[in-house]
Design brief:
Helix content is 78%, strand content 0%. With 311 residues, the protein is mainly alpha-helical.
Length: 311
């Protein structure tokens, strides 16, 4: 009991600290102002890439290549070496099972988090009252809280409810199935989806809503006919970011995962802890490849949105 009280106190202190830091960040952002001087054509001209020549070109190439080489290429080559030496180390059947578990959890959480983010962002755009802002603030708070603290915050009240009403079976539902794991993921990563959806909403003028209402579209029809076609890219990015974060999440997954239901992140950690680097290479490389997806998508999005010079 003393350990539970100490864990609850520590989790409460961390939550209070995170809430204070987020409030300070919002206060600082509220005072920020953005301005651009000159015409739109001049701004587009300033955004064009500059072609380097001579020594400056090679210095720029070196500056860009060294971090990628030291932070990605060499670690990947180090992980591929034991695989190339002995392919019999790999447990291909178990690897498929781990991958399917990770993909299933990531897909379910991505769909649910994007749905919740759309509802919250739409409610903020329509009314933005104090209750809606408070709920959105709580959703944004989850990403700043460590996964282990979220697990403690989930298991402590669950233990109290289980002692008071064991016939409900909440302990089995949240610890022996994927329900508790998905719940922890939603608390942790709804903020990622909400930020992406709100970023997409910031590019939709309010005049679109007024025009749609004059034509008889309001409520869910406004979201489905006007907002959704303009938010497809933002929601796709949000779902992908949540999916990748779920694939990499370790503390909550280790505590709440059902028996015999490991994920790639858990297996990679366990094998690396046991110094079985050859076997840990494959799930680690799979996580690296999954992590590259949002980088490629976002770089293509930025490149397509960049202004182009007219001939």
């Amino acid at each position: 009991m003393d350990n539970r009280i100490a864990a609850a106190q520590l989790a409460t202190m961390l939550l209070a600290l995170v809430a204070v830091l987020l409030q300070l960040e919002r206060h600082a952002q509220r005072r920020m102002r953005f301005a651009s001087g000159g015409s739109a054509h001049a701004a587009a001209a300033d955004a064009q890439p500059v072609r380097l020549h001579g020594r400056g070109r090679w210095i720029a190439v070196l500056v860009c290549v060294v971090p990628v080489l030291a932070g990605f290429v060499l670690p990947v080559a180090f992980m591929l070496r034991p695989l190339a030496a002995d392919w019999q180390l790999l447990q291909w059947g178990r690897f498929v099972e781990w991958s399917l578990n990770s993909l299933r959890l990531g897909a379910i959480t991505a769909v649910l988090s994007v749905t919740i983010a759309l509802v919250l962002a739409f409610a903020l755009r329509r009314s933005g009252d104090a209750v809606t802002r408070a709920v959105a603030g709580l959703a944004n708070l989850g990403y700043a809280v460590p996964g282990a603290v979220i697990v403690v915050g989930l298991l402590l009240p669950l233990g109290w409810v289980q002692q008071a009403a064991p016939q409900l079976g909440l302990g089995y539902l949240l610890t022996a199935t994927s329900v508790g794991l998905v719940w922890a993921y939603l608390v942790r990563f709804c903020a990622v989806a909400l930020q992406s959806v709100q970023s997409g909403y910031s590019r939709i003028p309010a005049s679109f809503d007024d025009s749609a209402r004059t034509m008889g579209s309001s409520g869910v029809a406004l979201l489905a006919r006007v907002h959704w076609p303009l938010l497809r890219r933002s929601t796709a990015v949000a779902a992908l970011l949540v999916f990748v974060d779920v694939m990499k999440e370790l503390p909550a997954t280790m505590v709440l995962r059902p028996f015999n239901s490991d994920t790639l992140a858990v297996v990679a950690y366990q094998l690396a802890r046991d110094e079985r680097l050859g076997e840990a290479a494959l799930p680690s490389l799979a996580l690296v490849l999954v992590g590259l997806l949002p980088v490629i998508l976002l770089s293509r999005t930025v490149r397509s949105d960049a202004p182009r010079s007219r001939v």
